[in-house]
């Protein structure tokens, strides 16, 4: 009798596993997977309801240290296509070798500077990413070419508006430099002729050394800096200490290397960039 019970339990487990695998397969075959939030949000804005778009790097996770699980790999290999950024998510290519899943790089034609992945913080480079993503969606689903073209043109028009607003803010700004906790806006600084000072390196989890903090305090006093830009998703005790010691005020900005669940669900890369514009208007005029 016990043998029969063990046999039935084994059959049930195998059936559940196969059913789960089939479920994952059926869910993923019409899905385009992206890796990080900026690529995900931009792809969703262009694909809208024609293709289901998902992302692999979880809300709240840090892109520089993210490692995919075996379930993540299963999702990627059973998907219709994968769109990734490049530089920080090159891990996506290896498991897709030999599969039928198409793979596209959103940063094609863009040169990364100093191992900095944050190209999406520059409206100019974001437009290039949007074109690469639109071209990828058109190749994945050519019958809806015009639909993606229309959505892409809308995104470009919004980025052109954003670009003009940044140009206006910078042209009227009292200062052409800014202090930030994590240097996520180097590409934006280059586009608008600004100088970026940062507490840490490109890794969000990095803590500044005592020597670096001393250097930043000296900079704040020399330049009479009133504000520091901080991503609300970063946890840097050093920033609070710096604000207490020097009196600089914290203004939130969104680097989008880490995004919260709420931001991922309620915001888009365009709405977060509009919030960034307001933050820069404050720090450049005080």
UniProtKB/TrEMBL annotation:
<dbReference type="InterPro" id="IPR006127">
    <property type="entry name" value="ZnuA-like"/>
</dbReference>
<keyword id="KW-0813">Transport</keyword>
<dbReference type="InterPro" id="IPR050492">
    <property type="entry name" value="Bact_metal-bind_prot9"/>
</dbReference>
<keyword id="KW-0732">Signal</keyword>
<protein>
    <submittedName>
        <fullName>Metal ABC transporter substrate-binding protein</fullName>
    </submittedName>
</protein>
<comment type="similarity">
    <text>Belongs to the bacterial solute-binding protein 9 family.</text>
</comment>
<dbReference type="Pfam" id="PF01297">
    <property type="entry name" value="ZnuA"/>
</dbReference>
